[in-house]
Amino acid sequence: MKHRTFFWFFLPTGLAMLLFIAAPIVSVVMQSMFAPHEAVLKTVENCGPFGCQPETTIDQEATRQLRAEQPLGRFVGLDIYIDRGHLAFSEVAAAWRAADGIGDFLSRLGNLPFYRAMAFTLTYTFVVTPLLIVLGLIIALAVNTLHRRLKGLVIFFSLLPMIVTPLVGSLILFWMIDSRGIIGSFIQWAANDPDLSLKASTGLTWIMLIVYGIWHSAPFAFVVFYAGLQTLPQDQLEAARIDGATRWQQVRFVVVPHLMPLVTFVALIQLMDNFRVFEPIVGFNASAHATSLSWIIFNDLGGETRQLSAASATSVMTIIGVAILLSPVLVRTWRDFKGKH
Amino acid sequence: MASKAQRAPRSLRLVTSGFIVLWLLIAAFPFVWTLWGSFKVELDFFSIADWTNAITGRNTRETHGSPFTLAGYEGAWVQEEFWRAAINTFVVCFFVVCTSLTIGTLGGYALSRSGFRYTFWLLIIALIFRAMPPITLVAGYLLPFFEWNLWGILPTTIIVLVAINQPFTLWMLHSFFQNIPKELDESAKVDGCTQFQAFRHVIVPVMWPGVITTGLFSFLLAYNDFAVTSMLLSESNRTMVPEIAAFLGTTYTEGNVMFAVAAVVSATAPLFILVMFFQRQIVSGLTAGAVKG
Questions:
Q1: ipTM over 0.85
Q2: Beta strands in A15-73 (DSSP E)
Q3: Are residues B108 and B232 located together in one domain of the fold?
């Protein structure tokens, strides 16, 4: 295909991505380095019956003019990144000096919004991902032994938690684990504690969100592994059987190595997806106990005061986080490409 | 096909079946429960006294004279005008899928047929864009959209969702088109077609399976999106998912949680039907990327 033809074919989609993905990224980076203008102050002599006094007021006209001329705000460099709402360098340093011991330091860090969100985001990402892979693998192995007719039905129901809108899915679970809902009542009964509420404690809220995350993403792992199981090398399995491998040994030494590339694939995709955890926090109304980077952005942007600069700074840091998680994928794709050419 | 020697022992088969049943329960029970409960009054759906009330609907019978009531649905659809949100969702999804597939097909086709090195870099850039959480882009949209008075209306959201959709669409369709032999359009070109004519007359007739699979995922992205729609749409233009989120704010205070429950069930129903009819395409789409690389 000639360069010219390629250009015209690719133009619409390229333009869409350039205008609505690439440009916003640039604009987010810019905005994160500008803070809103402070009001312009002017001092006037206010003369009354008891003599003249200087009085400072906001110069509405000048402020409006300044904001209209430079809608981005004033340049502050990286100040927003290190303020209290983000990396909070001075607060961290103060906590480090004041803390006695690592535990105390970490609990002080937990009071800073960025580190609080980071703690949950990372815990969620690195707990949910391995667990969902294990669960997906077990489901795939179990479904693979079923009769052909049953398989379709099981796959249908298994897809539901993944296909359903994340907000809706988390709401459905949230209502069930409400202290008056069926799972909530059951847990109260099982723990023999009528006042137990999953929503009230930080630890239980985290567990609840993690369980939701596994429930939501395990079907993806299941479907991918199940497809992988259809291409199992039968001769290898047979050879292993002839050598006297037990069922467990066959799984351990033939099936799992065969699925290993898929495990890597699912892990990489899910690490990135889980890192942006957001809807369940809204659905479970859990922001008092667990926040994530995406939730902070959403919270800053919503409401009456849209804090664009603060949200932009968090966005940039989220993008950096995703980029770190993405780098192994890129390396892999690059190697594949090198191999092909 | 399994010989007798390979058949699992009875104990293992029991464990497997037990596990499958347990998983089905975990996967499907929440939906069944919420669907059943959506026809009850709040006192039954959240029953403090006795959990069996949620099944028998004792309070529902006392209030409405029958164990099932459509009060929640009436409240959501008529009183809170959820139908507006449903129409908006339909409009958004329809246009997102159509636009996204049209421009994505052209782009994906071009990427699969051009042997130059820059196609690889374009795909890599698309992969990076695919990994961006949409919410991180929203801060970049707001200022220009406010400036140019584009905020809050459906077309803006549709275009944004189309753009967010493109990286995934390109990857899916690129790998799909690569499986269509190049000789097909090459021979059409030898016969005197231009590249576009070759695409139009040779590729378009055979591309529908891949396009339908990709379209399903575009639809799911548009339908399930919360971050972009809730930030970019004004109150009157909201789609279903942000509307449900807005319900939560008001209903907890006013005590009609059942409206939200009915709305949630209504929003899940189309997805249910979708999975029922397109299960095969969804599964193949999910595995397409995985099995290849």
A1: yes
A2: 34-35, 41-48, 51-58
A3: yes
